[in-house]
Amino acid sequence: MNVELQEYRPVQALRPHVQRFWAGRFNAGGADCLSQRVVPSGFVEVIIHLTDLHCDLPVSAEWRQSPDYTLIGLQNEPYEVRFSSEVEVFAIRFKPAGFYSLFGVPLGEIVDTHEDLVAVLGAHFRAFAAHLRDEPTVAARLHTAERYLSRAAESRDVTYLNRAEELIRTSGGNLRVEDVADRLCISRRQLERAFKSKLGLSPKQYMRIARLNRAQRLLQEGRCQGLADVAYRAGYADQSHLNRDFRLLVGDSPSHYLAKQQYYAVNAPDIDPSPEDFPFRKASAA
To answer: Which of 93, 124, 220, 234 has its CA 20 to 30 A from that of 243?
Structure first.
């Protein structure tokens, strides 16, 4: 597939907000057109293109080159991305509540789409992104990104929305909405309203994505005894429910996904966060 990816865990202060930094090189050499299907991950991606030619994304039934600095919102369905030439990127994978808390931008308007990052976050972020692009090494980009985001995080509390997101993620989507609300001492209605207005998805939608991501990891690890075992370990009622979510969120059956993994871009986390990664102070709903 000619794809090189390397992920980097953020410093402690950024872990409530950032899931990973990553660097990637796609279609090295640019001999053929590389196409991948991107599966919903429950994260927000900020993509800094380091080459003049970028990936192509579907826009209104046609393919268009993505902006220099691209914001990929939360996804409810898979989408295709194409690389007709060699493309190198540096990216920041935000937790949705973390993105909202750092920048104050509700995510409801960019669900299942992508945007020019400068149009969303303004000229100040463009200067930061341009600085990242000009850095000569991945290590320098990591240092610059962590310094910039850590300054922003200093003035932001970790709220119940951050904590709710982590509870769902660490459970693999296997909590009831009522259970999450009870653990945070808020009402179910307050939780649902905050998710929808700030993140653009309902808690149930986010749980479905988290459960799918756990099933994907189990398939990739190859330690389960068939799809029924995957469904059980991921928290599905049975294999038919696993198949349904794969059809909905991946666009293929689990068996086809397993056979063609190289054609999918999967950004599900492989390590559950430790409780100490997410200090929690209850805050009132905005």
So the answer is: 93
Task: Indicate if 149 and 184 belong to the same structural domain.
Answer: no
Give the burial class of 281: count Cβ atoms within 10 A of its Cβ; 0-12 exposed, 13-18 middle, 19 or more buried. exposed
Q: What proportions of the chain, in percent to the nearest 5, are helix, strand and coil?
A: 45, 20, 35
Mean pLDDT of the chain: 88
Q: How confident is the model at residue 206 (pLDDT cuts 50, 70, 90)?
A: very high
Provide the greatest CA pair distance for the chain.
56
Q: Are residues 167 and 141 in the same domain?
A: no
- Give the Cα separation of 253 and 231 in Å (integer): 13
Domain that holds residue 113: 3-154
Q: How many residues in the chain?
A: 286
pLDDT at residue 61 in the model:
78
How many CB atoms are closer than 10 A to CB 5? Answer: 13
Tokens coding 224:
């389960």
DSSP letter string over 200-235? SS-HHHHHHHHHHHHHHHHHHHT-SSSHHHHHHHHT
- Residue-wise pLDDT for 117-149, tens only, equals 999 999 889 999 999 999 999 999 999 999 999
The answer to whether residues 97 and 286 touch, using CB atoms and an 8 Å cutoff, is no
Distances in Å between the Cα of 96 and the Cα atoms of 22, 161, 257, 263, 285 are: 17, 9, 26, 25, 16
Residue among 206, 219, 215 at smallest CA distance from 235: 215
* CA dist 156 → 10, 51, 69, 235 (Å): 17, 33, 24, 34
CA distance 13 to 140: 18
